[in-house]
Amino acid sequence: MGDLLTGKKILVMGAANKRSIAWGCAQMMMEQGAQLIFTYQNERLKKSLHKLVADENALIECDVASDESLQTAFATIKDRFGKVDGIVHAIAFAPKDALGGDIMNASRQDFAIAQDISAYSLLAVAKYGQAILNNPASIVTLTYFGSERAVPNYNVMGVAKASLEAAVRYLARDMAKYGVRVNAISAGAVKTLAVTGIKGHSELLEMSEERTVDGQSVTTREIGGTCAFLMSDLATGVVGDTIYVDKGVHLV
């Protein structure tokens, strides 16, 4: 166990189960000494998360589609834990019908949902979370290179991730005055609950692994290692960036 994050309190938003990238980030941050707080969207996801996190007090309900829920969640966190040193935003969603076929057939409603949950939610989290963030602090979000390449079946999620990455840059500019740096990790394809919602996900995972520099897919712990670094004081000079943690897939 290291001490890179000893004394830091970090909020993790989006951990669903032991396979999720957010949990890989959580594991690495805990191993570096961080105290973690987790949000969950609903009771079903709370039950899944509770299998990993025994401390009921560290579990906070939060639906990022609701401003009221966000306000309540951050008020609860402040009451229970005081200020925190970082937020991991690992939240994305698009209706399944929008993750396949021709992108021009995606409905206006499905497109809007993908943008709201996957991109705007980062802005909302920064807005309501700013009051409980220390100075300095760090916000890290998760993206994927489908934001810049036309990955089969990724469709509206790719557009949403492009919006998310743009939001990172603008947030990094505007949050700097509060001592908060904002960055994104472009994670390689990992078999998570989110990925299995994409049509042809098995082929996507296989293609991704073939394109890594060593023929081995990136792991959630490897992604988590970069997250731990970005949350640490070693990363104070990294601002508004998208860091690829995909074993070189984006190079090809």
From TrEMBL:
Residues that bind substrate: 94
Keyword vocabulary terms for this entry: Fatty acid biosynthesis, Fatty acid metabolism, Lipid biosynthesis, Lipid metabolism, NAD, Oxidoreductase
InterPro entries hit by this protein: Enoyl-ACP_Rdtase_NADH (IPR014358), NAD(P)-bd_dom_sf (IPR036291), SDR_fam (IPR002347)
Swiss-Prot/TrEMBL GO biological process terms: fatty acid biosynthetic process
An MF annotation (GO) of this entry: enoyl-[acyl-carrier-protein] reductase (NADH) activity
SUPFAM superfamilies reported for this sequence: NAD(P)-binding Rossmann-fold domains
UniProt catalytic activity: a 2,3-saturated acyl-[ACP] + NAD(+) = a (2E)-enoyl-[ACP] + NADH + H(+)
Pathway: Lipid metabolism
Binding site for NAD(+): 14, 20-21, 41, 63-64, 91, 161, 190-194
Assigned EC number: 1.3.1.9
Any coiled-coil regions, as ranges: none
Tagged with keyword Oxidoreductase: yes
Active-site residues annotated for this sequence: 144, 154
NCBIfam families: PRK06079.1
PANTHER family xref list: ENOYL-[ACYL-CARRIER-PROTEIN] REDUCTASE, ENOYL-[ACYL-CARRIER-PROTEIN] REDUCTASE [NADH], CHLOROPLASTIC
Family: Belongs to the short-chain dehydrogenases/reductases (SDR) family. FabI subfamily.
Protein name stated in the entry: Enoyl-[acyl-carrier-protein] reductase [NADH]
Organism (species): Ligilactobacillus agilis
Gene: fabI
